[in-house]
Amino acid sequence: MKALGVIPARYQSSRLPGKPLKDLLGKPMIQYVYEAAMKASTLSSVVVATDDQRIVEAVRAFGGNVVMTKIEHPSGTDRVAEVAARRDVDAVVNIQGDEPLLDPLMIDECLNALVESGGADLSTLKKSVGEEAYQDPGVVKVVCDRRGRALYFSRSLIPYPRTKTPDFTVYEHVGIYAYTKDCLLRLSTLPPTPLEKIEGLEQLRALENGIAIQVAETRCTGELISVDTAQDLEKVRAILEAGGTRH
């Protein structure tokens, strides 16, 4: 399978403008993500998709591949789809540009889940979490059927432990996606769906349109931080300074 990794990187951010270019020990954040993606064994190529010339110049400065996309895209998925439509590939992995501690193994796990799913056109990851995350709406939960297909994603606690059986486990959704090219292009044409708008979760658009999502449990144990604020950035910087994940 010929697979393309796309890292959508938008300059404007309401809470942290210029986020992809924020400095982390002498390198822009987007460079950490790019270098991690390049270490994934399942990707044929990697490209940053952006809407800003400053990001184009920064990526080229460290030797990365980058393309300019339309500025009006409402989501990263739409930006990724624009790039994928012009490429001769079988599958596409949407890699979040604000996760500088990303483990390359996650990319391989996600893509392998798609390949081995037996018919799903979209795949993603999950990891188990403890009680501190149960009531946190910032931690998106996922429940799956016996084949590992997603039944639902929610900011609420699912499943609710009315009876706390030995099988009770809460899984957090890890926001990396692999799509067949056809699935990605179809998703980019679909309008937002009711549950998607209620929960504020784009992946529900796929479920509401009958698209099967294969979910694999990641073996990676490192902390994966999405940088949304200056505080998140300082937390990542502290981890790197202490000798944490480096790419």
Question: What does the model show?
Answer:
There is one protein chain. The chain is an alpha/beta fold. The chain has one domain (3-241): Spore Coat Polysaccharide Biosynthesis Protein SpsA, Chain A. The protein is built from 8 helices and 11 strands. The strands form 2 sheets. Strands 1, 4, 5, 6, 7, 8, 9, 10 and 11 form a 9-stranded mixed β-sheet that branches. The chain has a two-stranded antiparallel sheet with strand order 2-3. Helix 3 packs across helix 5. The chain is globular and about 55 Å long. The model has no long low-confidence stretch (mean pLDDT 94).
Record the SSE blueprint.
Elements: E1 3-9, E2 23-24, E3 27-28, H1 29-38, E4 45-50, H2 53-61, E5 66-68, H3 76-85, E6 91-94, H4 104-115, E7 122-129, E8 141-144, E9 150-154, E10 170-180, H5 181-187, H6 194-199, H7 204-208, E11 213-217, H8 230-241
Parallel strand pairs: 1-4, 1-6, 4-5, 7-11
Antiparallel strand pairs: 2-3, 6-10, 7-10, 8-9, 8-10
The chain-level structural class is: alpha/beta
Q: What coarse outline follows from CA principal-axis ratios? A: globular
Task: Tell me the CATH superfamily.
Answer: Spore Coat Polysaccharide Biosynthesis Protein SpsA, Chain A
In CATH, what is the class? Alpha Beta
What does the main sheet amount to?
9 strands, mixed
CATH topology: Spore Coat Polysaccharide Biosynthesis Protein SpsA, Chain A
Kindly estimate the percentage of residues that lie in beta strands according to DSSP.
15-25%
Can you give the mean pLDDT?
94
- Cα(first) to Cα(last) distance is 25 Å
Tell me the number of strands.
11
Percent range for helical residues?
25-40%
Radius of gyration equals 17 Å
Number of domains: 1
Total number of helices: 8
Helix/strand order, N-terminal first: EEEHEHEHEHEEEEHHHEH
Architecture in CATH?
Alpha-Beta Complex
Unreliable stretches: none
